[in-house]
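sry for the spam today, last one i promise. C-alpha cells for design, 220 residues
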C-alpha cells in the first residue's frame, strides 16, 4: 500500500483507563478511531504494550507510541489526532479490588456526623446564635423566651434541608443532572493527579534520554 492510497485515521485518546494485571493494552483500550471499515478492527487489535511489574501501576501511553504501531499496519496513513495526545493506564490487580468494609463505613460516617455537628455548634457559639434566636422570637411574638425550642427545631431542619439542596444529593437520589460540589471537587482532584502523573512520566523520559511529545494536538 502506498502513501497516496493509505486511508486517514482519526484517533481520540481516552483520558484514563483501567486494565487487569497481566492483560496487554491494545489500541481499543486507549482510543476511539474512525477510518475505513475494513481496517477498523485490525487497528483496534494492535497491541501497544504488555505491562510488567517494573512499570508500576500507572503507565503513560502517548501518541508517539501509537503512531509507529499504526504505520506498521498502514504505512503512510494520515493520522489525525482529536483532543489530548496521551492516556493514563492504571494497572489493577485482584488485591486492589476489595469489598467495602461496613465497620469502616460506619466509623467514617460517625466521624463526619459528629465532626460536622461540633463545627456547626462551635460556629453558633462564636456568633451567639442562641441569643439571636431569642431576639428573633421576641420580635415575632412580643415576648421573650429563653428557650425557643420550636424556632430552633425549625432552624435545624432548615439547615439539613438546605444542605440537601446545596449538595443536590440525598443518598442515591439526585434532584437534577447538575454535578454536586463534591463531585466537582473530586473531578478537579483527579484531574490534578492526572497532570502530576503525566509530568512525572515525562520527567522519567527526559532522565532516560527519551524525547517527550509536544503538548499540542495535531495530525501527522
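last one done:
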Amino acid at each position: 500500500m502506498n502513501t497516496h492510497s493509505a486511508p486517514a485515521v482519526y484517533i481520540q485518546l481516552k483520558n484514563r483507563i483501567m486494565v487487569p494485571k497481566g492483560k496487554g493494552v491494545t489500541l481499543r483500550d486507549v482510543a476511539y478511531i474512525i477510518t475505513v471499515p475494513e481496517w477498523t478492527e485490525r487497528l483496534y487489535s494492535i497491541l501497544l504494550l504488555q505491562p510488567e511489574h517494573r512499570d508500576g501501576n500507572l503507565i503513560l501511553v502517548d501518541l508517539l507510541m501509537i503512531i509507529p504501531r499504526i504505520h506498521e499496519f498502514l504505512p503512510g496513513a494520515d493520522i489525525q489526532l482529536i483532543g489530548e495526545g496521551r492516556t493514563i493506564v492504571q494497572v489493577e490487580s485482584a488485591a486492589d479490588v476489595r469489598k467495602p468494609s461496613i465497620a469502616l463505613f460506619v466509623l467514617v460516617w460517625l466521624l463526619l456526623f459528629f465532626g460536622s455537628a461540633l463545627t456547626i455548634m462551635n460556629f453558633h457559639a462564636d456568633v451567639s446564635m442562641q441569643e439571636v434566636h431569642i431576639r428573633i422570637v421576641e420580635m415575632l411574638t412580643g415576648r421573650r423566651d429563653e428557650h425557643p425550642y420550636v424556632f430552633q427545631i425549625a432552624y435545624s431542619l432548615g439547615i439539613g434541608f438546605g444542605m440537601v439542596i446545596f449538595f443536590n444529593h440525598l443518598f442515591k437520589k439526585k434532584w437534577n443532572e447538575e454535578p454536586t460540589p463534591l463531585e466537582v471537587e473530586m473531578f478537579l482532584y483527579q484531574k490534578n493527579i492526572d497532570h502530576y502523573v503525566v509530568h512525572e512520566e515525562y520527567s522519567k523520559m527526559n532522565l532516560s534520554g527519551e524525547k517527550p511529545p509536544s503538548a499540542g494536538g495535531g495530525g501527522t
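Residues 211-220 have pLDDT under 50 and may be disordered. ok im logging off now
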